[in-house]
Amino acid sequence: MARTIAVMQPYLFPYLGYFQLIAAADVFVLGDDLQYVRSGWVNRNRILQNDEAKLITFPLKKDRFVLQINQRQLCDHFSDEAERLIRLITECYQEAPYFAQVMPLVERLIRFPQQNIALYAEHAIREMCAYLHIVTPIMRSSDLILGNPVDKQERIIRIAHTFEATTFVTPEGGSVVYDRDHFARNRLLVRFFRMDPVEYRQFRQPFVANLSIIDVLMFNCVEQVQHMLTQYQLDKNPPAAAPGLLTRLTQHPELVSTLSNRIAVE
Known about the structure:
The chain is an alpha/beta fold. The protein has one domain. The protein has ten helices and eight strands. It has helices at 16-24, 78-93, 99-110, 117-131, 152-162, 180-185, 213-219, 222-228, 245-251, 253-262; strands at residues 4-8, 27-30, 44-49, 52-57, 138-140, 167-171, 189-195, 232-235. The strands form two sheets. Strands 5-2-1-6-7-8 form a six-stranded mixed β-sheet, sandwiched between helices. The chain has a two-stranded antiparallel sheet with strand order 3-4. Helix 2 (78-93) packs antiparallel against helix 3 (99-110) and helix 3 (99-110) packs antiparallel against helix 7 (213-219).
């Protein structure tokens, strides 16, 4: 049976497109054993404050940069940080139409008693999916037996073969990272995901796009968000990457790591 798989790092309260990607897949794999990138979106996101995007951060305990996501911990005093974040979100959205329905869920997720950032984010993602009635199975890559893949592409191929997947769906930014011909030789079709322009009524115009799912839920009922989950395209033939870009990315893997984190919001 044909299976579609998607793989992303675990992000805290990611934007709508992340949940569209989950809903588009038959199996969604959290890359919890990938290296944590400080400038990425594992423990950061954006909400609406005074009609502008406001960056919020869930602070982590200081540690070595080479650690995997599932080896990083929230800071020791995170309970205080959690209350600060809850107050900030309340101040920003208390006049939003669905604040009364959504804020208790957000508070419960922020106060979840788990220090490991991968497990903390995974819990929030699963609970948000349940709230939106997304039933796609969610797995952890750290639970899979993948051996020692030589690069990012081989890792994805091994994950896909684990689930007998025939299609790999990835944000269109991945067109500069993934070689469709290489995947085809490994019996895997690559389809590039692109979120349609989605706008909804916020407090005022102009619309501020690509904010956390928190913003989407504060201004829309569940039925409206479920409709938004279908507003995307799957493109087999995205625009070609700039000449030599794949070569440069291969020679500088840190660029690939940074790019893969930013794909979730751009």
